[in-house]
Amino acid sequence: MIPNRYFATCPRGLEQLLADELAVVKAKSIKLTDGGVSFDGDWAVCYAANLHSRIATRILWQVARGKYLNEEDLFEAAYKLDWSAWFNVKNDFMVKVTGVKCPLKSLEFATLKIKDAVCDKFRLAVGSRPYIDTKNPAVRIHAYLAVDEYQFYLDTSGAALYQRGNRGASIEAPLRENLAAGILKLSGWQVGQPLLDPMCGSGTFLLEAAMVALDIAPGHKRSFAFEKLNNFEPAIWQKLKSQAAAKVKAVSFQKIYGSDIDLRAVRIAKRNLEEAGLLAAVQLSQFDIVDVPAPDGQGVLVANPPYGVRIGEGEDLALLYPKMAEALKRKFAGWHTYFLTNDLSMPKLMRLTPSKRTPLFNGSLECRLFEIKMVAGSNRK
């Protein structure tokens, strides 16, 4: 039996971590590209990737690929496919087209042509057509257009995989869960090691770390688009879910600490942890980052400083960073600290030298993950 071909999307900069996760669920022919990883496997691999990947944004199943010159070619290519074999006419759908070096003048027109082809093919096959829903469709069709090649995919995930169903409330510009999970991985943090987020916001790092520590699959609470496809294999899915549920550890304190200067943020983080059933795994408090005490002699500190969002721009930051650095050097010697920011001048203003600068993207925003190993006194070489 020929395996299916898939493409898993992820935040740029985390492709290797995603490839490592896919290898664990027995994916084959794993190949990295900018913003994702292609791989082969049966449906069990696809279901497991959706259930267990902390890094992926979506898992897409490739249903066709070929050459094209214009929109008419895309219509013909989509019309050739037996869409009604894959999903029921009662399921509404949407088409999303992405182009890289695509010669077409309008991606909107290409989207319309593919959508028309799907509807026309349904009419021919079953005498009626599915409805369009661009907000919350049961089925998502993705088309990727390169210079002269198209690829059509059916989305097996549905809502983006970083939507774990854990974070009911959030504050301004929250960090996406899969990026937070990637940063935890890049930091080298190990379960049992103290972890502190001193700017915890709505608690994304804390939630992700608690789920890792307690062996909770990120997709355990949610449903997936593959469950609505005609070829869905419920017995395989039930087995995977049962195996994942059997691994979950009882909730207990995991040396995960969170604090924030903003009491509202602490309350929101508490509510999110409570609703996820993970509050007992984490210790929360209200502190300004310059006052927060080190909970242990060594550990990992991760932070996504609110670059200008909550503490004002320019001058305020220039004043805060040196104070922050001084407090960290004084209280956190022996800790490895990680800051995700799009403010590239941050280490210079902190007067600290990063040992690593990893380029990452928070959505479309280009950032750096600065690794700074804290030693007492100066950190400059």
Describe this structure in words.
This protein has 381 residues and is an alpha/beta fold. The chain has 2 domains: 4-155, 2-Layer Sandwich (VC0802-like); 177-215 and 247-373, Vaccinia Virus protein VP39 (Rossmann fold), CATH 3.40.50.150. 32% of the residues lie in helices and 23% in strands. It is built from 11 helices and 14 strands. It has helices at residues 15-24, 43-52, 71-79, 83-86, 107-126, 177-187, 204-213, 234-247, 263-275, 315-331, 346-350, and strands spanning 4-9, 28-33, 36-41, 58-67, 93-99, 139-145, 149-155, 195-197, 256-260, 282-286, 300-303, 336-341, 356-362, 365-373. Helix 2 (43-52) packs parallel to helix 8 (234-247), helix 3 (71-79) runs parallel beside helix 5 and helix 6 (177-187) packs across helix 7 (204-213). The longest helix has 20 residues, at 107-126. It is elongated.
